[in-house]
Amino acid sequence: xxxxxxxxxxxxxxxxxxxxxxxxxxxxxxxxxxxxxxxxxxxxxxxxxxxxxxxxxxxxxxxxxxxxxxxxxxxxxxxxxxxxxxxxxxxxxxxxxxxxxxxxxxxxxxxxxxxxxxxxxxxxxx
Amino acid sequence: xxxxxxxxxxxxxxxxxxxxxxxxxxxxxxxxxxxxxxxxxxxxxxxxxxxxxxxxxxxxxxxxxxxxxxxxxxxxxxxxxxxxxxxxxxxxxxxxxxxxxxxxxxxxxxxxxxxxxxxxxxxxxxxxxxxxxxxxxxxxxxxxxxxxxxxxxxxxxxxxxxxxxxxxxxxxxxxxxxxxxxxxxxxxxxxxxxxxxxxxxxxxxxxxxxxxxxxxxxxxxxxxxxxxxxxxxxxxxxxxxxxxxxxxxxxxxxxxxxxxxxxxxxxxxxxxxxx
Amino acid sequence: xxxxxxxxxxxxxxxxxxxxxxxxxxxxxxxxxxxxxxxxxxxxxxxxxxxxxxxxxxxxxxxxxxxxxxxxxxxxxxxxxxxxxxxxxxxxxxxxxxxxxxxxxxxxxxxxxxxxxxxxxxxxxxxxxxxxxxxxxxxxxxxxxxxxxxxxxxxxxxxxxxxxxxxxxxxxxxxxxxxxxxxxxxxxxxxxxxxxxxxxxxxxxxxxxxxxxxxxxxxxxxxxxxxx
Lengths: 126, 275, 228
Description:
The complex is a heterotrimer. By secondary structure, chain A is mostly helical.
């Protein structure tokens, strides 16, 4: 995880988790590392890890029972919402970037479809 | 208390290489002195006996027997003692300055130990004091051996044997460092301790205030010297004391000066010294 | 909590420290930033009782005593053990005098830093000397760790190792104060920043708050403050 120094690090950690969930690396109910382990592996301040966990707890992404390791939520609604959130965020970024170039929507969608299929093909060949 | 002892042990260990060298040099030099000087004395005696055609008994009547004094006054004998004294006087300063100006600033470690600054001060003082005592003890041990070696190397007829105590008293340097009475011991080593503590405190002034501190240190030494010698100085001004009074006064002043120096030195080490 | 209350220190006419005040909390990393000579090291030495100062410094609401040295340690930017000692002897020295010495952690860090007990202090490279100092300081079960320029003048690989130890072993529940003149790549490890210039505090702020509220990195703030 590359750290951006202009954005709160704890929010970057939360986003990182959401990405992992959307990708499928973290599944429902999966145990996640402790705050300390996370800090050590991401090379961040344990306080930041603490804050990130608190935020994720509040957003319902994880839940921690006393004395047990934290787990990713099993709530499907939330998990789907995360996926949606990330898709929308990526699309947002893309649209903001491409809008100034003034491409007709059909041409745009065609290019996107080509590029996307190409990427999938390359991944399957690996 | 334990930490103080550990510190003393540590300080002595640090100096052990040089210390053992000093002991070794003393041993070798003094024994060499016995052998070499004896040989030279015997040669001289034989030369004289030949020239003046004296028998051994006549030689003794005219020139006196060959005694250990000649050895004790020789350079090979006195040299190492002087060397050791100089080394230890240097070390009174070096024992502090090496921690600041060594390749590594060890003073950080000492001042961050969970032990009082007074312990640190006292541990250095104790180490030097013990090492001085060690040197003296070593000399006391090897002197009889040297005397025995001497006695066995000189033909009976020419020999003028001396006892250890006579040797000690007759030699100015030996009589200074090997006291003959307990009172003498207290006086010599008491004064030594006082001087060391005054020097330590002067060093603390320098380490606290740098250049200003050197001046303060020198001033402190000066004032201490004047105070200690005050009774004697007053005698010069025609104000006389009985010997007992003089002794008592100087003893009291000496003890006060030592205590004050230790207290002041430790205080500076705790509150004013900078790394 | 370490409270530094209006400390000042003069060297002749020059004010090395001018009414410096700040707090460093347990469990947080506080960073004193400023160019060389601005008083950062002097501040740390003052906290450690290694230099006199005017003002007050409290550690957990108490003035510094000799026992405080079991609770707080200082890792200077210089070698401090005797050059002829081996690393083993240095560790024995520490364990002899400190009840807070933790031999398991010492061995752990020795392994992590790949230091060998038989090595002599005088033979260590600058990077290894820094790691040794770090190991000796962190092997004490103290509440507060003060580090002076832990990353300066050290090769990149050693820096990474040290940053690693920082994140994993160091902070835990401890209060850490570090000084540096370049924030470099360790911004994300720091909770609070204190900017110093000419012996006084120009600004004190919390890094995450600064990012959240103003979208500024530490470097951005430094640029702002030092250029005005």
